[in-house]
Design goal:
The complex is a heterodimer of chains A (about 325) and B (about 240). By secondary structure, chain A is of the alpha/beta class. Chain A is about 45% helix and about 20% strand. The chains are: A alpha/beta (about 325), B mainly alpha (about 240).
Chain lengths: ~325, ~240
């Protein structure tokens, strides 16, 4: 808490100082020599990412790992991937937490147009190879993917699962039960949503209600019996609280959305120890861990910085 | 640390979650304000800084542009038209475009909001200068005032009430618009507000919104007080 507050105070001070020195200083961001860190001081690094719970936690995890290595970390979370991607390519941002297929699809449409053939699949290795090639062409290197993956997933209520003996999506298809699905508005024609569920699993979806991805409304519709199936995230930490269980994607319908650090290639070359630190974190982080961290922030309203620190300490990743 | 906030002193019972927890999710939650005080203070400081610098930048630009254009009818309409067009650029596009040049920095937000404030400020600076009576200018010229002295000693003071009226509108609207800076990571209270909306975190939404309103009122009061201070001749004169 104290170090967090200090860091935040320092960040605000840096912001103010930056403003005063507005145009004069090209390397604004608090790269002043840090006497406490002594010979461990390694210069500034900016961690960006999208501004929602899971990415806030990941940005804190990456940031605290880097701080532990002696870097002076500034965090800048933004609205969309499009805002930080150019900054990452041009080394104004050095590190971003990403989703493997998420960044892959983005880079693919950027490079090859909106109708480009997808390079991502359920296979992590193949997807990583394909996405790495695209990333390198814009000056970005992907490090090791974590086991943790935030994919679209489909949940039913505990009672519904027990009554019909369901654990996988194949079970649901084989049960020949007519179901209504609450999902994102674009679900109907998507291969990773209603279309794929029908074609790959043979699930009899009678209606798709556009109640949003993992939304409160969708979950309430499921627990209230208006729909039987609801689209959520694999890392949703509140499912148990809501009385919902995930059905396993046993035929690999969803592309690999493993959490993965994206780093500016040039900067990584100058700071090779970064990959060791971040890969160490990726090795530890599982989907269950991430769901638990999300729940602490979304359900208990803990601060991402505190939640991240506690996790890193529990895993023995600091120091 | 968390001891200070607790409603229930019994840590053994897991019941009674704090009012900011999702199971309670109260709009008004003093425990939230207590727990998040450091973040709220940081965000408010950033919000004030972004507002003040944006409006200051807007005012400097507006005065310069208005002085240049005021005796040039074509420039005047061009200036009015172009500042209005700038005002219609969606903030999402504005900040994303500026971020290409100035990066994820306060500068991006300050330049963007400074440009927006021109739509209000240029008009009021021109209106303020227009409102200086011709007789006064003639009298001052007759007394031997040069261009610069006429501007600083006669026109500027007489234009002040109208310019300040514009500055008040610009400031209050900028307090609201700073929140959009969250697009490029510098939105003051907007960063927390946007997160609160995304996570249906009611205490955070209400607290940051109230702080925005309070901030707008306070800054407005400061400007009113300042105007009264620098234009003593307007006091006590009923209109």
């Amino acid at each position: 808490m104290d170090s967090t507050t200090l860091r935040r105070v320092r960040r605000v001070a840096a912001t103010l100082a930056c403003g005063v020195a507005l145009v004069a200083l090209p390397a604004c961001g608090g790269d002043d020599p840090n006497p406490q860190s002594g010979d461990r001081a390694k210069g500034p690094v900016t961690v960006s990412g999208q501004n929602f719970t899971e990415m806030q936690i990941l940005a804190e995890l990456y940031g605290q790992m880097l701080e532990d290595e002696g870097y002076d970390v500034t965090q800048k979370l933004v609205d969309t991937r499009a805002v930080y991607m150019d900054q990452l390519s041009s080394n104004k941002v050095q590190v971003v937490p990403e989703y493997l297929a998420g960044i892959g699809d983005y880079l693919n449409t950027q490079a090859n147009g909106p109708t480009a053939k997808p390079v991502t699949s359920n296979n992590v290795e193949q997807t990583l190879d394909a996405v790495n090639t695209l990333a390198e062409s814009v000056g970005v290197t992907l490090l090791e993917p974590a086991a943790a993956t935030d994919q679209n997933a489909y949940a039913v209520t505990k009672e519904f699962a027990e009554k019909n003996d369901l654990t996988t999506l194949s079970d649901l298809g084989a049960a020949k039960l007519p179901v209504k699905l609450a999902a994102a508005p674009d679900c109907k024609d998507r291969q990773d949503c209603a279309k794929g569920l029908r074609e790959v699993y043979g699930i009899d979806i009678t209606e798709v209600l556009p109640l949003g991805f993992g939304s409160r409304e969708g979950k309430d519709a499921a627990t209230g019996g208006e729909v039987q199936l609801v689209q959520v995230a694999t890392t949703d930490g509140a499912l148990e609280d809501d009385g919902l269980v995930l059905l396993e994607d046993d035929k690999g319908l969803q592309p690999a959305q493993n959490l993965i650090p994206a780093v500016n290639s040039q900067w990584l070359e100058d700071n090779p120890d970064v990959s060791t630190a971040l890969n160490e974190l990726s090795t530890a982080l599982t989907t269950e861990d991430l769901a638990e961290l999300n729940a602490k922030v979304d359900v208990d309203r803990e601060k991402p910085a505190d939640v991240a620190k506690e996790y890193l300490e529990d895993q023995g990743l600091l120091g | 640390m968390s001891l200070a906030a607790g409603v229930t002193p019994s840590p053994l019972l897991a019941a009674d979650p704090p009012c900011y927890a999702r199971s309670v999710n109260a709009w008004i939650c003093p425990e939230y304000v207590e727990k998040y005080a450091p973040e709220l203070v940081d965000a408010t400081v950033q919000h004030v800084y972004l507002t003040v610098t944006s409006v200051a930048l807007g005012l400097v630009l507006a005065v310069a542009l208005a002085l240049f254009a005021r005796n040039r009818p074509r420039m005047r309409s061009l200036l009015m038209g172009s500042t209005t067009i700038v005002y219609t650029i969606p903030s999402l596009a504005m900040f994303s475009l500026l971020a290409q040049a100035t990066g994820l920095s306060p500068t991006t937000v300050i330049v963007g909001l400074g440009l927006y404030s021109l739509a209000i400020l240029v008009r009021n600076v021109l209106a303020g200068l227009d409102a200086v009576p011709d007789e006064v200018i003639e009298a001052a010229t007759g007394l031997g005032y040069g261009r610069l002295r006429l501007l600083t000693r006669v026109e500027a003071p007489l234009a002040t009430p109208i310019v300040m009226a514009g500055l008040r509108v610009a400031t209050v609207s900028t307090v609201a618009m700073v929140t959009l800076g969250t697009i490029v990571a510098y939105g003051g209270l907007g960063n927390m507000l946007a997160n609160g909306i995304d996570d249906s975190f009611k205490a955070q939404v209400l607290t940051t919104s109230v702080l925005c309103v309070v901030l707008a009122v306070l800054l407005d009061l400061v400007l009113v007080a300042f105007t009264r201070l620098v234009t003593p001749w307007t006091r006590g004169v009923a209109t």
